[in-house]
Amino acid sequence: MVQQHLSLLHLAYVIARRRLISNWPLELVMFMGILLAVALLSSSVVFSDLLSEAALRSSLQKATPEQVNLRVRVFNSLDDPRMEGRESLYHKSKHFVDRQVSPRFAGFFKDQNRLFETATMFYAGHPQLELDNSLRPRGKIQHMTAVGDPQLTQVISGRWPADNVTEQAPLEVVLDQIGSELLQLGVGDEMTVLPASVNGGDATMKVEVVGIFHRTDPQSVFWQDQDSEFSYQNDRWTIVPLFAAEEPALDKLWQTYPGIRTNTTWFFNLDRGSIHYDDIDEVQNAIRLSRSEVIGNLDNSSIRIKLDRVLNEYSEQLLVARIPLFLMVFLVIGILAYYLALVAALTVKSRNSEIAMLKSRGSTTFQIGLLVLVEGLLLAVPAVALGTLVSPLIAQILGGLFFEVQPDIGLGISMWALLLGIAGAVLAVGVLTSTTLVAAKKGIVEFRQSGARPATVPFFHRYYLDLLLFLIIGLLWWQTQSRGTFLVQPLGSGSFAIDFTLLLGPILALLALGLLVLRLFPIVVAVLARVIGPMGPAWLVQGLRKTSRDPIVPGSLVVLLMLATSLGVIGSSFGSTLDRSQRERAMYEAGADLWLQHNDNTRHFATLGLSDFLINEGLVESAVE
């Protein structure tokens, strides 16, 4: 039995191979149909990935550093850093963040900086420092891991603080260049620091300036949101931090000010090009776990990150942007199925005599179907390989037409793109095989009858299935109009999802309209033949009469042309649809063309009739305070 099946497959392979060579023009048409199915369906997945990646890059690039960067802060009272049998609070917090938080974001945050700082200190010991408390320079004793990194900071004069100092020696510190100018101190100068708070006590501590440094690039993204940690002067204060080595600072502060309030902050800067659309769930999960673990395990801690909000907003915008994309995919699949059915019908019609001859020689319907299946598979294998390879190029061209594509976005062939391409090939081969099986049920007598009297009414019209399609379209149209959107919110879920059943409405409408055209086409052609008959040339009248008697093939071509035109019109409006969606969402979120908002940092002031003035001058339509 197995040997018989293998022999049958080998015979089908030999016949199909010879048919590919002898009848190559028709085979080329079939191959182009399968290739088109694979390329379009596979490129739709690649284009969806490209749209997702481009939208994510745009959202992250537009976000502010405060929205995308991570900051963890812990407030503690300083305890003995060298206590035996128990880890100090500072080292406990440090090790927890390094072990539980940092590894989760290792692939997404390119820069990390840790800052340890004390409460505010006053400076004394020099005439320029001995001022009233409201005017005198102040700052914090700090340890920053980035200070001392040769790629980020550079010593102008002196050296970096030593990691080991004696108990009697003053604490070694470095000043940034601006701080050295504000304090008028240089390398080798000493001064006294004392707590600025009333409850800080009267204890003082000696510090020695051993170096002056500056940041190599203060505008670097590494220092985003950290400018306030360096020296500056404003209308109220002169702030100059003192940067020291980690362990000497902890030891000296514990000896002089046991229990002083300290603050440790970790800065994580996002690498905006490292997050891809398929990493969103991982990033969201890392943010959720880090937020709960930091708050639950570190006392007096806080974590600031708004990246999850940015990603949530991106997901919502992407969901809305994908509606026209999925609509296009559904239209392509529907039109593609119609095109493949038309090609298969024409192919089978040209082979009706061959099929009838095979049936008359004893071939079964299964054997004829197997022959066509093997032939389709021989065409499908190279079509899948070629169509999948060209899908990124098609997606790149479409992306350049509809939106701006960053050059660094890499396009790859995902597993879904390959599977959908294979599904397109299976669809094409399936349509060809099923159409052949239907035709193979006829014998030589039925073939002669159909050739002498071709059917004037197709299958859909014979059973009024086009009217059934119109009823289904009416139901889908009513659902869309009542909801006002293609989105639904599943029970128990706080997010929206696309209702794909409603997306079937447009393609069903086009197909139903095509069937209606196909129903009216022979009537219109017959009327036109009667009108032109008395005055028109014989070749035109006879052609119209033949078309009216056998309208299925020319009518099918008219419907295909109509569907292709509609797809082109819808595709041309894809980019403008996305632009309008973004514009309307931005207008809805803003609420007005112009906003004037008081920041409440100083006393409130009246608008002084600004709204009435703008309305009276005709500058705005309405204004609300």
| Beta-strand content bin | 5-15%
Radius of gyration: 38 Å
- Principal-axes geometry comes out as elongated
Query: Percentage of helical residues?
Result: 55-70%
- Assembly category: single chain
Work out the number of β strands: 16
What value does the average pLDDT take? 78
Helix-strand makeup class: alpha+beta
User: What is the first-to-last residue Cα distance?
Assistant: 88 Å
Largest sheet geometry: 12 strands, mixed
Unreliable spans are none
The total count of helices amounts to 19
Describe the structure.
The chain is of the alpha+beta class. The chain is 56% helix and 13% strand. It has helices at residues 2-22, 24-62, 65-68, 89-101, 177-183, 246-256, 280-297, 307-350, 352-360, 365-402, 415-440, 444-452, 459-462, 465-483, 500-532, 538-549, 552-572, 574-590, 610-616, and strands spanning 70-77, 109-118, 121-124, 138-139, 141-144, 153-158, 171-176, 190-195, 205-215, 232-233, 238-239, 242-244, 261-270, 301-304, 487-488, 497-498. The strands form 3 sheets. Strands 1, 2, 3, 4, 5, 6, 7, 8, 9, 12, 13 and 14 form a 12-stranded mixed sheet that branches. Strands 10-11 form a two-stranded antiparallel sheet.
